[in-house]
Amino acid sequence: MTAPVTMRTVGGTASTAIDFGTTHTVASVATGDGRVQSVLFDSSPLLSSAVYAGEDRLVAGRDAERSARLDPSRFEPNPKRHIDDGTLLLGAREYPITEVVAAVLGRALADANRVAGGPTGRVPLTYPANWSGQRRGLLVDAGGRAGAGHVTLIPEPVAAAMYFTTVLGQRRAGRVRDRGVRPWRRHVRHERGTPGGRRRVRGGRVRRPGRGGLDLDAVVVDLIGRTLSTVDRPRWARLVERGDAADRGYQRALWDEARAAKEQLSRASSAAVRVPLFDIDAFVTREEFEAAARPALERTVELTAITIARTGLGRAREQRPDLMGTADVQAVWRIESARIVAALTRFTGDFGLAEDAAQEAVAEALVSWPLASPANPAGWLMATARRRAIDAIRRRTALQDRYALLAVDLAVDSAVDEEIDPDKIDDDVLALMFVSCHPMLSPRRPG
Could you give the CA distance from residue 268 to residue 262 in angstroms, rounded to a whole number? Predict the structure, then answer.
């Protein structure tokens, strides 16, 4: 999970918050004057959590991913998954897992210190809410090895809830689901404002097999394997079973392609996956992907309902039977989705924008309807989606206006440059003066 963390400065000094994720790590810096700034790693807010064992040290981030081409056996893309292993074999050497995690945290801290202009004081680190004391202790030790000063730990769902209420200013009840990348990790936290202005975090945690980010990547790989494994089983086995260094390089390339295809399927009806060893492009359709992933994703909805009941939010519906729940939202969406998207497409002239606005309306309904159900659910979805589309169009228009102003400024600057061009002088007398003073003219000799 790579959720933002809300920070407070301590004694006027800067603080750095780090979310060490399985695939990516993010960091933010809170300066002494209260400003919060995201740390950029190679121009991106996401730092790859991968590590590579170099000749003299461990490297992390994009440097590790590039170095993996030299020797895939020294590369580990997800060190967080080995948190219980004690040591991690990279190449011919075993490294303590604390040292491996410290390499990632150290890279994040180094870039954060550059943003802050020096070492920061307090360093909050997020951790999965179901981590044991041993895992949390390892994370604190890794932070110390990385050079962090005062390390504090914050559960990931609590950090996300704090960001939702403190930074985004949302004061209504909400649910935080950390799907993560591990199938066994599910947490929900509920944070709501109290009449006295204080926040109260309540929550529940459910552990049950499900789907995470890497598992959805595996869905893409499995769909491709259904065909290619029948074409050449030994060759396909080299892509999915642990092999030598060369095979691990092919496997990493396949999973990178699968991850990119998964993201593309959220925007397109099909995606091509370049398959190493076979040297072909395998196509996966959105319909195939959704059908394969739907059973596990439906279980996440079930887990959300269970956790809502544990937080006490479900009691509101028991006292108010007229309130609508997740199943009601799904039912309304199944019936009205086509009409809503079609109407929004006609209104905006942009099918992609219409889909995005409709999905944002459904997300809002999942939060709002269990607390205050509308009299006309379909009309509520349509009105909310329409407002979201209008907001998006306004943002797009404002951006275009800024570009137009920038173009005008550039034109004005160009005009000023032309005005002072000595080769383009409208005043004949002034032009004659320039000609008379030209350095190419020899000085007049006395008679």
Answer: 10
